[in-house]
Amino acid sequence: MGNDAVVGITIAVGGIGPAIAIGLIVAKALEAIGRNPEAAAKVQTIMILGVAFAEAIAIYSLVVALILKFV
């Protein structure tokens, strides 16, 4: 398998988990806001923080893929 294929697989596998996690985080946040609209600002803040942490995993996989590509 070529180096380009390994890089592609690294990005693909590293992006699946964060995509699922972000979907679940947003779904649960919207569910919480639907149950308690007064807490929307607090829930939204926590949701954005959770999405940022989940997205960091995808960024780490991109960094690993770039290291594999150029080193």
Automatic annotation (TrEMBL):
It comes from Candidatus Beckwithbacteria bacterium CG1_02_47_37. SUPFAM superfamilies: F1F0 ATP synthase subunit C. NCBIfam families: ATP_synt_c. Key component of the F(0) channel; it plays a direct role in translocation across the membrane. A homomeric c-ring of between 10-14 subunits forms the central stalk rotor element with the F(1) delta and epsilon subunits. F(1)F(0) ATP synthase produces ATP from ADP in the presence of a proton or sodium gradient. F-type ATPases consist of two structural domains, F(1) containing the extramembraneous catalytic core and F(0) containing the membrane proton channel, linked together by a central stalk and a peripheral stalk. During catalysis, ATP synthesis in the catalytic domain of F(1) is coupled via a rotary mechanism of the central stalk subunits to proton translocation. Keywords: ATP synthesis, Cell membrane, CF(0), Hydrogen ion transport, Ion transport, Lipid-binding, Membrane, Transmembrane, Transmembrane helix, Transport. It is found in: Cell membrane. This is ATP synthase subunit c. GO terms for molecular function: lipid binding; proton-transporting ATP synthase activity, rotational mechanism. One of its GO terms (cellular component) is plasma membrane. It is a multi-pass membrane protein.
